[in-house]
Amino acid sequence: xxxxxxxxxxxxxxxxxxxxxxxxxxxxxxxxxMWIGEQETALLTFAMAKTEIPRPFTHTTLWKxxxxxxxxxxxxxxxxxxxxxxxxxxxxxxxRRVDSRPSDALxxxxxxxxxxxxxxxxxxxxxxxxxxxxxxxxxLSGGAAEADVERFSEELPDDLSxxxxxxxxxxDHLSMDDFLDGPDDEKN
Length: 188
Hints:
Elements: E1 2-11, E2 20-25, E3 30-35, H1 38-48, H2 58-68, E4 73-82, E5 85-92, E6 97-100, H3 102-112, E7 115-119, H4 120-126, E8 128-129, H5 135-140, H6 145-154, H7 158-172
Parallel strand pairs: 4-7
Antiparallel strand pairs: 1-2, 1-7, 2-3, 3-8, 4-5, 5-6
């Protein structure tokens, strides 16, 4: 059985720690934490905040390619954990399934607004009961993925909101010249 979840946060205890994305079941009190890389954290944050960029990231290209092939992303699912590594799949509306890293699947889900699920065996084995169950759980429950993403982006801590604003500002002023490293690079 697949349990619907939503992304409720990304955290790292110290700057040296890898970030952990937190998934919380929609109708229960369990949370599943998974380590993801710094680049994946940035991409997930931008996807959740619906950050507009001049050129598509890889997950946006993947979503558009799926659509161009006549399919839609129905859901993404964290399917297993083997040897300390979580596994996921992207489920298309044509019944096909695509193997994926969980971070890539979550970035895609945040981009297209599809359902996120976790196999109950994974949640049973690796999930923990939310210590803040009750009022905060009631506040976070319900709503479509889009509403959760919108609420998340509105509730970003000030320091993270500032980083996103700075990143948007940097993107607005990027040019190809910024990526040239030396005399061997040619301007087109």
